[in-house]
Amino acid sequence: MPETAPQSTQLSVAGLFAGIGGVELGLQASGMHTKLLCEWWEPAQAVLEHRFPDVPLHDDIQTLQSLPDVDVVTAGFPCTDLSQAGRTAGIHGKASGMIKNLFDLLETASPKWVVVENVRNMLSLDRGTAMEYLVTQFERLGYSWAYRLVDSRFTGVPQRRQRVILVASQVADPRTVLFADDAGERPDSDYLEDAFGFYWTEGNTGLGWAQDAIPTLKGGSGLGIPSAPAIWIQDAQVGHAIVTPQITDAEALQGFPRGWTEPAESRGRASLRWKLVGNAVTVGVSEWLGRRLSQPGAPINAAEVDLPEGARWPTAAWGHDGTRRGVSVSFFPERRPYVHLLDLLDARAAAPLSLRATSGFYGRLMKSRLRYPEAFASALKEHIEQAAAECA
After folding, report:
1. pLDDT of 96 strictly over 70
2. Catalytic annotation, pick one of 72, 79, 102, 105
3. Close Cβ partners of 284 (under 8 Å, ≥ 6 residues apart)
4. How is residue 26 annotated by DSSP?
5. For residues 14 and 56, what is the distance between their CA atoms, to the nearest angstrom?
6. In this structure, are residues 181 and 333 in contact, taking their beta carbons and an 8 Å threshold?
7. Terminal-residue alpha carbon distance, the chain
8. Quick one: DSSP state of residue 180?
9. Which DSSP symbol is given to 263?
10. Average pLDDT over every residue of 105-115
11. pTM of this structure
């Protein structure tokens, strides 16, 4: 593997599949500057144009002829075909397959670092075909690579969001970026028991249950129909105990300033902001990554295992020129001070979950074999009765 000497300098960035700039905002906070953004969706373009007014914006990676001379290329490519909530068509699906354009561009570019981000499901979908494709393409181009599954809660936000971060380089060791930190999982004592997030669209086989947090924010439908999670606030009065967060809460849960996606309303319906936020990279994750890209560190002494051909992809691994090793590290590179859910949520503005949504979820839950607190079931039932009485 190539060696990397410690350094601290301002790195330049080209952001592909930029979305609303979660990667770039975090890298900027770590001291980097962005020289190019590329994003096709008009509502996202509106956000980028407003938030990064001095950065050139290209509208389609398929027509991008070359990359500028930059230190870092980022590619949080579409998860539509990889996510459990998406089509699961795989890495060669119409949307997720757009990642091939990254490798076409890298044929004639020499960034020091390449960063790829996507959903956890790509480690297992089709027996890990997506990850196999990515590392094979990087190795074909002479890159070393490493990846790690991280949970956004390590940055302090109350959102249980697990994403794969892959770093590759032709001249440096990606392990000095991804495996230089490991704080271990947060202890249960970090989480309060006053609020619990769940997905009201579930109830048959799962809840998406999250203590003192919400489950992963999702992009919602392609039509911009929000798929916001719900929250059970234990001590709230009936009618206000089962609620959904506002879009500004969702922005904060991803580490953005409240109102970050408001410019998108100039190019589409306000509800599209949910999809924009749900597809974004948590800002704190990319800020940590940026600090390590700027100043790599010695990899921690973690247990490793060989990964034979066809083996399942673990939650962290590295490789180079055919060598593949799994690494035993946690989802928490750091443990920043935690913001409790009710300290972030604007509970006064949170909308009660609708009668229809609550009734559907409750009905599925009652027929399932899932385990849940009895107080939660009682709160749902009381919420339904209150909402029905208000509609009568």
Report:
1. no
2. 79
3. 26, 152, 154, 155, 156, 157, 255, 336
4. H
5. 10
6. yes
7. 69
8. S
9. G
10. 97
11. 0.92
Q: Which of 371, 116, 379 is nearest to 231 (CA)?
A: 379
Phi, psi of 211 (to 5 degrees): -85, 130
Q: Which of 313, 334, 358 is nearest to 120 (CA)?
A: 313
Note whether 273 and 220 are within 8 A (CB). no
Distance between CA atoms of residues 371 and 81, nearest Å:
30
SS3 104: helix
- Residue 79 catalytic? yes
Contact 199, 228 (CB under 8 A): no
Instruction: Return the bridge partners of 244, or none.
Output: 351
- pLDDT the model gives residue 290: 98
Cα 128 to Cα 215: distance, rounded to the nearest angstrom: 24
User: Which among 97, 98, 87 is positioned nearest to 60, based on CA atoms?
Assistant: 98
Beta carbons within 10 angstroms of residue 30's beta carbon: 18
Task: Give mean pLDDT, residues 183-209.
Answer: 94
DSSP state of 233: E
Q: How far is CA 103 from CA 68, 117, 213, 341, in A?
A: 15, 15, 37, 40
Average pLDDT over residues 329-343: 98
Pairing relation of β-strands 159-160 and 162-169? unpaired
- Helix, strand or coil, per DSSP, at residue 169: strand
Quickly count: other Cβ atoms within 10 Å of residue 371's Cβ. Answer: 7
Q: Give the tens place of pLDDT for each residue, 232-278.
A: 999 999 999 999 999 999 999 999 999 999 999 999 999 999 999 99
**E-only strand ranges, the chain:** 12-16, 33-38, 57-58, 72-75, 113-119, 144-151, 159-160, 162-169, 195-198, 210-211, 214-215, 230-233, 242-244, 304-306, 316-320, 323-327, 351-352
Three-state SS for 162?
strand
Report the DSSP pairing between strands 323-327 and 316-320: antiparallel
